[in-house]
Amino acid sequence: MSSEFGKTLRVGVFGESHGRAIGVTMQNLPAGEAIDFNTLEAFLDRRRPGKNALSTARNEPDRPVFLSGLLEGKTTGSPLCAIIENRDARSRDYAELSDKPRPGHADYTAFLKWNGEADLRGGGHFSGRLTAPLCIAGGIAKQILARKNIFVGAHLFSVAGIADEAFSRVPDQALFDGIAQKEFPVLNDALGCQMQEAIVAASQAGDSIGGVIECAAVGFPAGIGNPMFDGIENRLSAAIFGIPAVKGLEFGAGFAASSMRGSENNDPFRMDENGNITTTTNHAGGILGGISTGQPIVLRVAMKPTPSIAKAQGTVSLSKRENAELIVHGRHDPCIAPRAVPVVEAVTALVLLDYLLEEKL
Amino acid sequence: MSSEFGKTLRVGVFGESHGRAIGVTMQNLPAGEAIDFNTLEAFLDRRRPGKNALSTARNEPDRPVFLSGLLEGKTTGSPLCAIIENRDARSRDYAELSDKPRPGHADYTAFLKWNGEADLRGGGHFSGRLTAPLCIAGGIAKQILARKNIFVGAHLFSVAGIADEAFSRVPDQALFDGIAQKEFPVLNDALGCQMQEAIVAASQAGDSIGGVIECAAVGFPAGIGNPMFDGIENRLSAAIFGIPAVKGLEFGAGFAASSMRGSENNDPFRMDENGNITTTTNHAGGILGGISTGQPIVLRVAMKPTPSIAKAQGTVSLSKRENAELIVHGRHDPCIAPRAVPVVEAVTALVLLDYLLEEKL
Amino acid sequence: MSSEFGKTLRVGVFGESHGRAIGVTMQNLPAGEAIDFNTLEAFLDRRRPGKNALSTARNEPDRPVFLSGLLEGKTTGSPLCAIIENRDARSRDYAELSDKPRPGHADYTAFLKWNGEADLRGGGHFSGRLTAPLCIAGGIAKQILARKNIFVGAHLFSVAGIADEAFSRVPDQALFDGIAQKEFPVLNDALGCQMQEAIVAASQAGDSIGGVIECAAVGFPAGIGNPMFDGIENRLSAAIFGIPAVKGLEFGAGFAASSMRGSENNDPFRMDENGNITTTTNHAGGILGGISTGQPIVLRVAMKPTPSIAKAQGTVSLSKRENAELIVHGRHDPCIAPRAVPVVEAVTALVLLDYLLEEKL
Amino acid sequence: MSSEFGKTLRVGVFGESHGRAIGVTMQNLPAGEAIDFNTLEAFLDRRRPGKNALSTARNEPDRPVFLSGLLEGKTTGSPLCAIIENRDARSRDYAELSDKPRPGHADYTAFLKWNGEADLRGGGHFSGRLTAPLCIAGGIAKQILARKNIFVGAHLFSVAGIADEAFSRVPDQALFDGIAQKEFPVLNDALGCQMQEAIVAASQAGDSIGGVIECAAVGFPAGIGNPMFDGIENRLSAAIFGIPAVKGLEFGAGFAASSMRGSENNDPFRMDENGNITTTTNHAGGILGGISTGQPIVLRVAMKPTPSIAKAQGTVSLSKRENAELIVHGRHDPCIAPRAVPVVEAVTALVLLDYLLEEKL
After folding, report:
1. Which sequence spans correspond to the domains of chain D?
2. Residues of A numbered 314-333 whose beta carbons fall under 8 angstroms of chain B's beta carbons: which are they?
3. pLDDT tens digits for range B76-118
4. pTM value?
5. Interface pTM (ipTM) of the complex?
6. Could you tell me if A272 lies within 8 Å of chain C, comparing CB atoms?
7. Are B234 and A247 within 8 A, CB to CB?
8. CB of C128 within 8 A of CB of C245?
9. What is the DSSP letter of A251?
10. Domain spanning B4-358, CATH architecture
């Protein structure tokens, strides 16, 4: 299952950073869904590098080529495959890297797992570049969900400890669209400026910084999910931890709930003005017992600082079995979190669509 | 897959709180593994209610009966099934509960999912009681892991915001055994006393409180796991979120990494005194790119406060479609986290054993 | 996955022939389905040994005990577990058997796989006795299918080369019910007598004989299934080969189609009198491209002769690594096929229900 | 899972007959396996159309392009993706076909399943053309198996009722290589000539004919597999029925076992000259209780006649809901079985490699 996830909607990612192409397969998409390629491009643009001074200059047009599963722009029901050719990859000297694993990267663990046979150029299959095909799949999922009035949006919740405002209890499509159009995806632009300053400061120090992303899905129907090990939190977490650099995940009040009292954390049920059952708060993040409550599904994702930094770092020589020093060359995003915002949306959308397809909704 | 998890080692849990029995099946256990029933009992005792003043008085001897998969105390290789009969369940009047969903519980979502047909007495299949069979399975996994010099231990990391000490960089078996013998599973007993006071305070206020559990696995070999969606974090998270009341999970530095710089968070590689590759810190929690580094696997689990509280709460009547008030009777653990400590160990052990069996280690 | 199958409806079987109990778990059953226990008993009776002179005398009341998943006789939606206690198992001396593997049984292969640790008493987990829990699950599936006007029936298609009549193109419930009430499940009782004579002859010769079972499902809707590797034939075959002694399987015209011409084998489409699309023949056995056509699903299952025979057989001593002779004591069914008829129905019903649940039909 | 199979070695096929490309992904291939592209080409050539007068003239060079998972001709351990571009597809008028489903094809069932949105040009995703990527994957599997001294070979067992000789009890690599080099894959060329005459006769009559393929794997170690639902027969059957036109499958003596006596069908164990345990016959086809015996794994696959025939056939107009007549134009293989011989080898090799990877052998 390594690079696949999903139960009904199966998504599989393939490719290495400096290989011929990267891509994604999607199985069991419903038939007859039109894909709006402009909307998809706009979504992919949000993750694309080189957008601003804060991200890597690698120029990747990343235009997806659809090999199967589409006929006249609509899904056919059979497996969809889309690829992105790798054009800009310069396989500079990776000889040093292959002997001296970069701290914080998967170089060493991949070396062990594949007995030195892995393609580690540019991070290989572990590269953040693999999130591009994930966004193709997720962008398609978002379009299908939107037709069902389900919207998924995300923003930078914090960077370097500087927090954006949190989502309101029930965010809406307009809010998500607004964030999506921003160059720096936050709710409060003033706070966003402070975050950007922190990123620039880290970058100028030859260093990097981490961040937290908050994601919400609105309009997801109540009563969807499963108990115990196949609930919404289970499937979402299994997929979200597949995004490179994710080290933490919480739903609703999350870690904060651990210092709350029950009377405070429990979300009282109430009839709303339309005669529907709602809750007055949403500390559960829209999920009770693995099953949706009908309230927004809310999650927060902690991303570690980019492991590639300009500063010299301690490592070892695998061949000489001795300590060594390493300087990682090249230009890397000093903070990966801003570009990861649409990736979190993509994965969330894919998991939620998986459930809907399962329920034939 | 609802109540199952694992890829090679398949674990399935069944039963309802007030049904005839609860139980667990384990598929693909290795053959010939002796089970030490005393050790298993001792492990189950750590989760058992009624141990002290802080936990519910329900008297559950919870002695497992093994129906299959064992011959003369050793595993046979074919599916193991163990059950615990429900003797002490008093199906007091659940009529009110079935109409008025308890806030913070799965009553409402289960009602929707199963069209009012779920057995919700005592929480039904969502009851914390289902963690007992999970501990049978996990206790067996821990014994098999220990024979491979892999040890899994956990402690209360915080309750009500009161933090225990964190695990040292490399905890050991002795430390884990020490915690396991304590009535209140913390490293620093003085801090543990403060936690207990906070629990008593919540209880006396007719309320409950949450907590965080820290779990570590030492001795797990390097190079195990998979990239992207089937890595150690993915499988552990999918399973850990199956424990009732878990709302957050982080590995290594976790959420704290999001405000760290790369130079700080990256774990430099170094040769140790024995000529092995190690890292000087372990912010990665023993996992890079989904694959083990050979350092301890470290995770922290946030548990919400027990949703059953004595205070009156707002809810709705499902039949009358109007607001209502609910008082949950019965005695419940004011803080579920202490009893969940062995449950987190159990699930962690099961997932790690799953990987080892897959690797034939 | 060893002893489990199904995608949405997960069925897992556990137990050994001479262990404490055998049983079955079912996950993702729909909630609110009443189980008619008399009908279920009647179904289990069809597979029960000792019914007539032809089958083993082991007295197994085989009354299932439901541990979970039922409330007041109706499914709750959470995992169902049912067990049958092993009362009549006499663990006579299996020492010889464990050293001298019985030809045609799994003794030798199980010995290798589990390093001599398997419980092989009475065939252990490989025993035909494990089809009893399978019939509990299948009997429940048949009841749920019947409410959707889908009926599954089977008969002995041939024994010792003596063929019964084949099912007509569209068999019906009444026909299935008629066969179910017969002591010897054939369409043509005269031919059934000949089969029984052949079985008696084999038995009197200290030998055994094989047979073929034909199974049909009527009322299954058109358009259900999947292309390539998850079609109806794929899932049915994966499950059917789990029945002990099955060595062949064909759908529709099956092997006969291999010597037919296309013009003969193709089923022409036609409008029927009600304006529905039908086919004039059903050589496809109701499945094209892995997807149902709406015609009866028809399959035939080849079962080898019971490997336990009274005649002396050549084997080896595993301990002495030398040739040996073996006489299998005890009484065994000289032909397993008659008792396997309901088992084939059970497995077929479970797979078809799996698809229906997936489609939310 | 529609178009995927395998547990450890996951194989997924995508593409439509007249789409942009068809392809295959392979997950969890071992790292460091060199691929001999010449050998792979030679294998793909065996399935290629247009080889002789008997098969369709469509000119498909079918040269695979590897997009990922290879570095300098060796597997890297991360997902491999290979594609074949569709160059020769002429989307002639499929308007008639899309309204008038071809008997024996999946047109009608795919129409139902995907609400008329499926790409059915040339059979779409159901086309026999999809077996080309399957052979890429299988050809790679065969190379890896050969390094472990496991060889998989197949031949035409019968066509139009004309039978080739059966494999000897233990066929070997040389025999398999010999068949692979023949234009018509049989053991006995004289019998092969008769088969070819029967194919030509069917073709000249505007008709088609079916066939049976026998496949064997030698060198597969004993003790591999699982009981009940995950045994070798289960996994092989689930995959083999994914090959278009397969309607029957048997292992070892198969259907013939159903009219054999136990004393005849049981394979006595014996010590061979090298002190290894063997059996004197192999009616079990190398599998007992789902687990390998160490004897050759032997299976036979029944393929129906090509449904595309030149003769006029009865069908319906889906739009007009009335009976219609259809003449399928274009040139099609009058017997698909000869070209399916390497496909059966490919699928068998993939399933056996899946088990070996699982066992880390």
Report:
1. 4-358
2. 314-316, 318, 321-323
3. 999 999 999 998 655 555 666 679 999 999 999 999 999 999 9
4. 0.97
5. 0.96
6. no
7. no
8. yes
9. E
10. 4-Layer Sandwich (3.60)
